[in-house]
Design goal:
By secondary structure, this protein is an alpha/beta fold. Helices cover about 40% and strands about 15% of the residues. The chain has helices spanning about 25-30, 50-55, 60-65, 100-105, 110-130, 150-165, 175-185, 225-235, 245-255, 280-290, 305-340, 355-370, 380, 385-400, 435, 445-459; strands at about 35, 40, 65-70, 75-85, 90-95, 140-145, 170-175, 195-200, 205-210, 215-220, 345-350, 375, 425. Strands 12-11-8-9-10-13 form a six-stranded mixed β-sheet. A five-stranded mixed β-sheet has the order 5-4-3-6-7, sandwiched between helices. Helix 10 runs antiparallel to helix 11. It is globular. The model is unreliable at about 5-60 (pLDDT under 50). The structure holds 5'-O-[(R)-(carboxyoxy)(hydroxy)phosphoryl]adenosine and zinc ion. Zinc ion binds near residues 176, 351 and 384. Zinc ion binds near residues 176, 180, 201 and 351.
Length: about 450
């Protein structure tokens, strides 16, 4: 489901960028505070527990066996997982708000917040129990701090800080889209930087070049809706069962339809860039549905065979064009990326829509034509999950990017640094879109700019 940023947030949560763990005790104390336009990277005074944690021989911290709890609540899934730095997934728990989605046809922030609050303790508890561990066995807690819905992010962050504070654990703030991309490095051991990623979900449509951990170049993004939003609306208008979200329902129905029967036009053909647009395709689909008198109030399970056939044709035709748009943009993005980083070998496709078999097959074709390899995490790691957050936490922890444990008791009105609008990287010059600039007033500097500022400070 599309989770767009809705509210401003404060900036008390700090994303620290410390030097690599081997030199921690010494260089952390010598780190000077750095002010950026809106963010403050503070001096870090190593707590006793952390000094102890890292009072080992140089380089060993990076190789240390870590066990990290990951918490994800940025949109409509409440998820937690425990992952080892070896890549072993010790547990994975997801509580979905699918029933709420099916009832209301979208994510209502207040309701989603309540749903997260009701299950978060249980989800985290279950993740620990399934891993056969207690909080005391953890090395750190990682949590999504953006982008997403503030009200929802807050539930996960509060819980993560509670666990980290009570058990004196370091805490790591994670970028949701970076987590979607990096989980591919858990499943594909050979995936080294630099690589490309297409991240396709309910709220995002991103093409990026991943130079390094925390360093991304944005080749393209959507100027309006993301592809997942188009799948969800099409499913709703076709009267499909939304309990597993719209995407899987369209994928299944499309198998019965004729994908050539309706000639929807491919979005943004005349724009020779890597940006996306799905709002126009949504309108084309809505008009096609109206002109064929499809009645969404009649569920597909009760439709006549002609009616079912008609709906399947629309689903298949929509999917074909929605994915052709991805194919075309990926082809161009690969050309751009190889000019910048000729050593690229992989395109990662992740995010909820990447669990679609048709999407995977079509993109595999594009990637092979360009002599690259496609990496798609398994479906349970493509849709929102805690594993990707825990894994991104592990990657950051290994290079010393984490916060010290929060206080054991934090006041109820403590203001967290949540980043509902948080770009992953800077835009590639060729990909800039005037059309988008009005909608994307930035609230937070990109992850990449924060990391680069911090690295410059250290050098
Ligand atoms: O990444 P994700 O779980 O949550 C967000 O960050 O948005 O993605 C959810 C989106 C929804 O729009 C859902 O309909 C779509 O992923 N999705 C699919 C499939 N499974 C999930 N879209 C197409 N085909 C699927 N099999
Ligand atoms: Zn997501």
């Amino acid at each position: 489901m599309a989770c767009r940023s809705m509210a401003l947030s404060s900036k008390l949560w700090r994303l620290n960028h410390h030097p690599k763990p081997p030199s921690l005790p010494l260089s952390l104390t010598s780190l000077r505070p750095l002010r950026t336009s809106t963010s403050f990277l503070p001096t870090f005074s190593p707590l006793n527990s952390l000094s102890a944690r890292f009072s080992m021989s140089p380089n060993s911290a990076a190789k240390q066996d870590l066990v990290v709890l990951g918490i994800e609540t940025s949109c409509d899934d409440t998820a937690a997982a425990v992952v080892r730095s070896s890549g072993e997934i010790l547990s994975q728990v997801v509580s979905s708000q699918a029933d709420l989605l099916a009832r209301y046809g979208g994510v209502a922030p207040k309701m989603a917040e309540e749903a997260h609050s009701q299950v978060i303790d249980q989800v985290v508890q279950e993740a620990l129990e399934k891993a056969n561990l207690s909080e005391r066995d953890l090395s750190a807690v990682a949590v999504t701090i953006g982008p997403g819905l503030s009200l929802c992010l807050r539930v996960g962050v509060r819980k993560a800080r509670k666990v980290a504070g009570t058990f004196n654990l370091p805490i790591i703030g994670v970028h949701h889209m970076e987590a979607h991309a990096l989980v591919a490095r858990l499943t594909e051991q050979d995936l080294q930087f630099p690589f490309m990623a297409l991240l396709i979900s309910g709220g995002h449509n991103l093409l990026i070049l991943a130079h390094d951990l925390g360093q991304y170049l944005q080749l393209g993004t959507t100027i309006d809706d993301a592809i997942g939003e188009a799948y969800d609306k099409t499913a709703k208008w076709l009267g499909l069962d939304m309990r597993r979200s719209g995407g899987p329902a369209i994928e299944e129905l499309a198998l019965e339809g004729d994908a050539e029967s309706i000639k929807f036009s491919i979005p943004m053909k005349q724009h020779k860039d890597c940006n996306f647009s799905y709002a126009g395709l949504k309108t084309q689909v809505r008009l096609a549905i109206e002109s064929r008198n499809v009645n969404a109030a009649i569920p597909i399970s009760s439709a006549s065979s002609d009616d079912r056939r008609c709906r399947a044709d629309i689903a298949a035709s929509f999917q074909r064009v929605a994915v052709l748009h991805l194919e075309e943009r990926c082809h161009r993005a690969i050309e751009w990326a190889l000019k910048i980083e000729p050593s690229i070998k992989y395109l990662v496709v992740s995010g909820g829509v990447a669990s679609n078999k048709y999407v995977r097959a079509r993109l595999d074709h594009v990637v092979k034509k360009n002599n690259l390899h496609l990496v798609c995490p398994p479906p349970s790691l493509c849709t929102d999950n805690g594993v990707m957050v825990a894994w991104t936490g592990i990657e950051q922890f290994r290079v010393g990017r984490f916060d010290p444990p929060p206080p054991a008791e934090e006041p109820e009105d403590f203001v967290y640094d949540l980043r509902p609008r948080w770009p992953l990287g800077e835009e590639h010059a060729e990909g800039r879109s005037e059309a988008r600039s009005l909608r994307t007033a930035r609230i937070h500097p990109s992850l990449t700019s924060l990391v680069q500022a911090s690295l410059q400070q250290q050098s």
